[in-house]
Design a protein that fits this description.
With 221 residues, the chain is α/β, with parallel strands linked by helices. 40% of the residues lie in helices and 16% in strands. The chain has eight helices and ten strands. α1 crosses α3 and α5 packs parallel to α7. The longest helix is centred in the first third of the chain and has 24 residues. The radius of gyration is 17 Å and the shape is globular. The two termini are 28 Å apart.
Amino acid sequence: MLGAEAGSGIDLETLDRFAAEIHAVQQLGVQTAVTIGGGNIFRGLKGAAEGMDRASADYMGMLATVINSVALQDALERRGCQTRCMSAIHMHQVSEPYIRRRATRHLEKGRVVILAGGTGNPYFSTDTAAALRAAEIGAEVILKATKVDGVYDKDPAIHADAVRFDEVAYLEVLKRGLKVMDSTAISLCMDNDLPICVFKLATGTIARVVCGEHVGTRVIT
């Protein structure tokens, strides 16, 4: 998403717009943790599909999330937002190591916590990392900001008759293979009764969701 129309690299205008949305939510007094992918720099699955060792490709993908996380931290702090970047892959010069109790303490102090480095393990996606961290820190909901305005029964970019769900059950997502998150992430959310809200990122949408407005699609029990 940070690659904007180019699809790669970091578009600073997009980054600043994303930071503005997060800052607006923080100013509402909402404890906010952010997990960001690294597909605009390197996508592990793509590297593996092109012949790379899967574990090596996944580690490269996790390092890409650290780059994006540091960029987001800078954009937030330029807006006067207190942040902490915490990485599952330890690199003390640029981030704190992820420790659950420390993360929750930062949240209690009103800091935006940026969770980088995935789970620290290959074979797990950023979606799974987001679900895992959300469960660990006791999050009330996962907000998944995407390029699409919700969950559809088929790809709306290809099928004009695609139907968007207002609400859909975890099991339905798994059975129908709906493109929300990968199956591991969905199963983790289902097992921990952690709702997911999928919506298109636009000006004010994150704040609207946080304030209770029904935007996009909710994935629930």
